[in-house]
Structures are given as C-alpha cells and as structure tokens.
Amino acid sequence: MNSTISAAMILAAGRGERMRPLTDHTPKPLLQVGSQPLIGWHLKHIRQTGIRSVVINHAHLGEKIEDSLKSGEAFDVKIRYSAEGTALETAGGISKALPFLSPDFSSPFLVVNGDVLADLPLQDMLLRASEAFTQGAFAYLVLVPNPAHNPNGDFSLAENKVGNDEANRLTFSGIGVYHPALFKEVEVNQPAKLGPLLKSAAKAGGVFGERFDGTWIDVGTPSRLEDARNWVSQNWDATCK
C-alpha cells in the first residue's frame, strides 16, 4: 500500500449555523483569527510539512473563499476547489474531491476540518501516519481529550489502534489521514457522513491513531472563536513579531 502523503484537503463547506450572525455574510473559514483568516493557519501549517497540493471544498458563500485565497500563491501552495451546491457532509465531500487528492486512488492524504486549530506538529504526525499505512491502515486519526461540549468522546484508543470500545474514549480532533479505499462505497455527489465509515473500519482493525494533549480548539461558536483569537495572539502571532 502506497504510504506517500503529498496532498491535503481542508473541509470548508459547513454553514456555520452556531456562529451566526458572523457567518451570514462571511464563510466561517474566512473569519479573522489574529493575523490570518481561520483557514490561513491551516494553509501555513500544511505548507510547512512540504505539501503544496491542497483541495478546499465549499458550499455556503464558497465564491468568497475562492476570491480570497485564489490559487494559493500567497501561501506558496496550489489550491484546487471542490464546489458543492449543497454540502455533502464530510465523507461525501472527500469522495467528490478524490480525483484531486489521489489521482491514482492509491495514495493517502491529509484532511483537516476548517474550523479547528491545533499546535500539533503536522510533519511528525504525517511520518507516524505513513508508517501506519505500510501496516494496512485505512485511516489515521488524531484524538484529543474530551472537551466540555463532547464529554463522551468518539473513539477508544489502545496503543496506536482506534476502536469503538466504551473505555478510554477520546474525541476526534478533525485532523486525519485517509486512504482512498475508505470511501469506495460512497456514492459520488451524494451526502455521506464520515463517522460510520470510520467505525466500520475500526471494527475491522483498519484505523490507527494517536493522542494529542497540546492546544486544540474547536472553533464552532462565537465564544470559542474568541478563545482561538486570544490563544493565537499570545502564541503564533507573538512569535511572528
């Protein structure tokens, strides 16, 4: 199984209902967080790994994302857009973008939720993910301690294997690496959720992962947006001065 990771996708098709009215006229990925729009931090960190091929899906106000980021030259990446008339959910969106992410349908790729921020060393994580794919992984997930808004977690983690057990449950961070084969049953251009695919693959022993205990923020509400802005101003922006 090919373990080379050379493409990334940023999920940016959500409506951002909990962020309204901020997202009524501005797509959530373009909300300002310190010196960058939210999605800008993802592009910067992805580029630092050496990846230059980036796919961004969009639906709500997607033309504003394209107008702002254009072809990605400002971030030294090449952006291709996967436009969804109606949001296709996570698995549906990834399935539609597969020809851009893995043209040979054999190489794994990085996917990041557009509304999370983490000081995760992406390059190190990608090295561990690549090793997992040589061992037959279909997915590699970054899991975090359960936040207040998701107290029961999403998956269990034992050693480096992700499962569905009730014990040792952690929350999926929205950062993962996937093999195209995970999406083979997803009908193109149809909505499909990622969770059921991951749970099925985990049951078969095909999902690997790691726990991350550093800073992770799910920027899903105005209050957590302020948390992200405060953290970025004290950390990432502060180091750029």
List the helices and strands and how they pair.
Blueprint: E1 7-12, E2 32-33, E3 36-37, H1 38-48, E4 53-58, H2 62-69, E5 78-83, H3 89-101, E6 109-113, E7 116-118, H4 122-134, E8 139-144, E9 155-158, E10 161-163, E11 169-178, H5 195-203, E12 207-211, E13 216-218, H6 222-234, H7 236-240
Parallel strand pairs: 1-4, 1-6, 4-5, 8-12
Antiparallel strand pairs: 2-3, 6-11, 7-13, 8-11, 9-10, 9-11
Written overview of the protein:
This protein is of the alpha/beta class. It has one domain (7-240): Spore Coat Polysaccharide Biosynthesis Protein SpsA, Chain A. It has seven helices and 13 strands. It has helices at 38-48, 62-69, 89-101, 122-134, 195-203, 222-234, 236-240; strands at residues 7-12, 32-33, 36-37, 53-58, 78-83, 109-113, 116-118, 139-144, 155-158, 161-163, 169-178, 207-211, 216-218. The strands form three sheets. Strands 1, 4, 5, 6, 8, 9, 10, 11 and 12 form a nine-stranded mixed beta sheet that branches. A two-stranded antiparallel ribbon has the order 2-3. Strand 9 and strand 10 form a beta hairpin. The longest helix has 13 residues, at 89-101. The mean pLDDT is 92. This is Nucleotidyltransferase family protein. It comes from Leeia speluncae. Residues 8-230 form the Nucleotidyl transferase domain.
